[in-house]
Design goal:
The chain is mostly helical and about 300 residues long. It is built from 14 helices and no strands. InterPro entries: AA-Vitamin_Transporters, EamA_dom, EmrE-like.
Length: about 300
């Protein structure tokens, strides 16, 4: 059934939505970006390694296949790196709009690879989704004044990286067992993060990791362990186009948690944006559901 693969990708994206709240809580404890990001990927990698050790379903991989998977995992690490760098020079509300360009970028990439145009339903969903993203971000480009070009560049690079991550999950060695595939992809992500932040980590005191505490474990679980597993399971079955649209649920989850956990104020236009995003996610699946009901009448 396709619904279980759709649900897997949906829940994986929901898991990503938890991260922004956890990162804000870590920042309130005075933990710098380098420690937060590297700890997130290191802990997530250890969780996947432990899971793989107790998993019987494995395949013998060639060195070429291992390298392919690790290269496919690099975009995941780059998403966090580029997104955090964008926040240095631009507002978070603008950065999230830039990051969510991964949705249409992912659809375009899949169309180019498959050499076919997106359906009218997909295009309609994208338009609704982009409107919803701008509303849910709680701001607009006009209100931000002058936007630094370097921040915009990093934000767009984060979007491209996320789109490539989704595409890689759909295309690279999809026949492999989910846990084994996720482990090697996250290994590539970890190497990318340590390569970028390694020099900064050398100068960080060990007490900084103590300040991160359980936030690091939760970041590793919700940001590095759960999403790759669910994406590796569902994405090859539904494709990166629909996968990109489903992944947009991350923003509504982030908004809801900011209200519940961080006690932030969310205005009416943001809730309207959340509604549009949910609508954009539902539309691509309506036609498939009708087809399933037609094939399997009650």
């Amino acid at each position: 059934m396709r619904i279980k693969f759709v649900t897997a990708v949906f829940l994986g994206a929901c898991s990503y939505g938890v991260l922004s709240t956890l990162v804000k809580l870590a920042y309130e404890n005075g933990v710098p970006t380098a420690v937060v990001t590297s700890s997130q990927f290191l802990i997530g990698w250890f969780l996947l390694a432990a899971l793989l050790a107790f998993t019987q379903k494995k395949q013998r991989l060639t060195m070429k296949e291992k390298i392919q998977l690790m290269l496919a995992g690099i975009p995941t690490g780059l998403v966090g790196i580029f997104y955090y760098l964008s926040l240095v020079t631009i507002e978070a509300s603008v950065a999230i709009i830039l990051l969510f360009q991964f949705v249409w970028i992912g659809v375009v990439l899949e169309s180019l690879i498959n050499r076919q145009f997106p359906t009218k339903k997909t295009v309609g969903s994208l338009i609704i989704l982009l409107i919803g993203t701008v509303l849910a971000s709680g701001s607009s480009w006009v209100n931000q004044g002058t936007v630094h070009w370097l921040g915009v560049l990093f934000g767009l690079l984060a979007a491209v990286s996320f789109a490539l991550f989704i595409l890689a999950n759909a295309k690279v060695l999809p026949q492999l067992p989910t846990v084994q595939r996720s482990y090697y992809m996250v290994s590539g992500s970890l190497m990318a993060v340590l390569f970028i932040f390694g020099p900064q980590l050398i100068h960080q005191p060990l007490t900084m990791y103590g300040q991160l505490g359980w936030y690091g474990v939760l970041l590793g679980l919700f940001g590095v362990c759960i999403p790759p597993l669910l994406f590796a399971y569902g994405m090859p079955q539904i494709g990166s186009g629909l996968g990109s649209i489903l992944s947009s649920i991350e923003l509504p989850v982030a908004v809801l948690l900011s209200v519940i956990v961080l006690k932030e104020t969310v205005i009416l236009s943001q809730w309207l944006g959340v509604f549009f995003i949910f609508l954009a996610i539902i539309l691509p699946n309506i036609e498939w559901k009708k087809e399933q009901l037609g094939k399997n009448p009650l």
